Amino acid sequence: MPEGHKIHRIARAFAADFVGHPITASSPQGRFAAGAQMIDGTTMTGSKAVGKQLFLEFDRAKVLRVHLGLYGMWNFAGAIAAPVEVDPRVGSRTVTAVAPQTDFPAAPVGQVRVRLLTESAL
């Protein structure tokens, strides 16, 4: 289960590589399609964690609130500065730094509720 310190680490990763950049948002799984459409094309203006909640702020007064629940995670790829953290107790990756890919952005894998892209990071 992602604990508060991991959520804070994810918030810092978003702040480093997404804040200040226009975002392309989608919902490959389809369960967040309406929400993704609301933030698609906006610029991320802030990223903060409060307890186990992650708040991603966008222009036009939009906020995406995320609680990862028991098994949720964020994966980062592309030109990123995100730290690598693997929880050996459960084997889940909370933040994954992946080398830049030639086929950026790569196709989503698994159950992806929301996908956020900049020109160089996802």
In DSSP terms, counting alpha (H) and pi (I) runs of 4 or more, how many helices? 2
Number of strands: 7
Strand sequence of the main sheet, in spatial order?
2-3-4
SS content category: alpha+beta
Share in β-strands: 25-35%
Terminal-residue CA separation = 22 Å
Which term fits the overall shape?
Answer: globular
Helical content stands at 10-25%
What does this molecule look like?
The strands form three sheets. Strands 2-3-4 form a three-stranded antiparallel β-sheet. The longest helix has 14 residues, at 4-17. The two termini are 22 Å apart. The protein has two helices and seven strands, in the order H-E-H-E-E-E-E-E-E. With 122 residues, it is an alpha+beta fold.
Features:
single chain, alpha+beta, 122 residues, two-stranded antiparallel ribbon
